[in-house]
## 1
Amino acid sequence: MLERLSWKRLAFELVLCCLPALLLGALVGHLPWFLLAAVTGLLIWHFHNLLRLSWWLWVDRSMTPPPGRGSWEPLLYGLHQMQMRNRKRRNELGSLIKRFRSGAESLPDAVVLTTEEGAIFWCNGLAQQLLNLRWPDDNGQNILNLLRYPEFSDYLKLRDFSRPLNLVLNSGRHLEFRVMSYSDRQWLIVARDVTQMHQLEGARRNFFANVSHELRTPLTVLQGYLEMLREGEADGALRDKALLTMEEQTQRMGSLVQQLLTLSRIEASPTLDLSESVDIPDMLRQVEQAARSLGPDHQFTFEVEPALKIRGNSEQLRSAVSNLVYNAINHTPAGSHIAVCWQRTPQGARFSVSDDGPGIAAHHLPRLTERFYRVDKARSRQSGGSGLGLAIVKHALSHHDTRLEVESVPGLGSCFSFQIPVRLIDNRTEG
């Protein structure tokens, strides 16, 4: 309809422009010259409007078009409407892209958008962190030039994305890559950091291997003595020795199972109600009695502030405190001096166990809290140690917003300590 209206207006403008020329030519003569002047004036008017339109489109670029008359009015109005629609579509597309990028930034995975040739045209922040990409500096760069791993290059070239690619970066991170075609000749590359999963899987394998090894030794001893007793080869002193050894091995397995259950129970409770009042001085009195029975050849000094109680979980704190004291007894020779201290400090309340034993080499210190890790494996097995005590201590202390500190000098002794924060000191029972 606008097109028909535009042709009518053009015809009307031509007639309106030529009508005066026809009248003047009929009266005065020189009709061709008057018609030429009229058509020339009409062309100049159209040329003037064309310049105004060009100025608006390329220089002014405002939303409101210049005013138009005659046949230019529907043309300018139509261009204005088209510009409004395009701007609306651009805003919608920009909003959609913004929402997509915002969602991609919130993903726990690295996201990279590339062409099928590998040219990068967007990546999220996690991709910059995990893959060392730089945005927008790497815009247009080929991802194969930035991730120089033969396995990754072959994975993209084969274009068989039915299975993910597991890749170990030079930084030691384990990444799982998935590639999806999401539009014409474009790829969506997603990389997930599975380092912790690999570590947990390795810890699980080591855990079962260690448990199997720890149980295999006493079970082998029990099986050997049972076969000997069944065949009637043991009598008198040998029989008594066999029964005593079997009892010790049974107690060792029972202790291992108990510590495994304790560790499992502590790890299964990531958050605790720390409102319980824990009487650490009374707890240490009981630990002291047990320690003197366990190490009659050791010398003990217990320096305990009698009214210093805290808020926390008594079961877990008892496990932490007793394991540190018993470890000091089990890993120091007879005659060693063990000092246990519980006192208030400006930072809170500090518990420490010091000894003058053989000490621990520096390279062992970072791994002491690992499950089944032993500094002296032969001595630990001889004393019945399972290698779980410090792992229990570590997790119990983490629930009380503190951690185990270890200081040791070979030949001079060791000190195991932790600091309970001020906010967990129970001041209700003081005074």
Note: Residues 2-90 form one domain.
## 2
Amino acid sequence: MIGRLSQLLDPSRITLSIKSARRTAAINEVARLLDGHPNVTNFQGFYNELLARERLDTTCLGNEIAIPHARTEHVQKIVLAVGRSDKGVVFENCNQIVKLMFVLGTPKTNPGTYLAIVSALCRLLKEPENREVFMSASTPQEFIQAVVAAEEKLFGVDAK
């Protein structure tokens, strides 16, 4: 089980400059960061389920954040990609602008870990100061450091 959200982050799976301004194109842009990930067994299958989930109900959380996600047999372990847009992405299905997107794939067989990760994400993102630091990080490494610092503040240094 993943103890910390930061353990899922990899600089190569973070883009701080989403180019697309529309929801589906932006989700594709961020999800593509997971194409070739060792825990994604079928990227196209994963991506199709990601879009199907997004069609069911919006993944916008408010505060310019969305968590497009899919529980699928196309991933072996939880995978995460992050995208940020300074201009914002139009999520027309909820009439919101999203500037920070976390694309999450989880195995169907492990709902507990999925719920723990989404819960941790929501707890980190509800704090305005965390959102501000995440939006101002200038590199993927800085973004990860900001997540680690936020986790330590929220969950304690020794929490694993």
Note: The chain has a mean pLDDT of 92.
